[in-house]
Specification:
about 80 residues; two-stranded antiparallel ribbon; 2 helices; about 40% helix; Chloroa_b-bind; transmembrane helix; Chlorophyll a/b-binding protein; Psb34-like
């Protein structure tokens, strides 16, 4: 009984005419379907909260430096 001959798997294959094809094995393609970053999402609300905190601290710093409130600075 003879053992079947197995060819080693390589990235090179030949077509029916015997022409070498270097790019026969292509990597599997996929689409990353991660979290949405737009719209009313948890991530958007987190960014909104952080920006609001930065703005509030900025206003407090401006009041401490100038000695005037925001309404006095803009002319009301």
């Amino acid at each position: 009984m003879t053992e079947p001959v197995t060819k080693p798997r390589t990235a090179f294959t030949k077509d029916e005419r015997g022409i070498l094809n270097n790019w026969a094995i292509e990597p599997k393609m996929y689409v990353d379907q991660g979290d949405d970053r737009f719209g009313l999402t948890e991530y958007a609300e987190l960014i909104n909260g952080r920006l609001a905190m930065v703005g509030f601290v900025g206003l407090v710093v401006i009041e401490l430096v100038t000695g005037k409130g925001l309404l006095q600075i803009i002319g009301f």
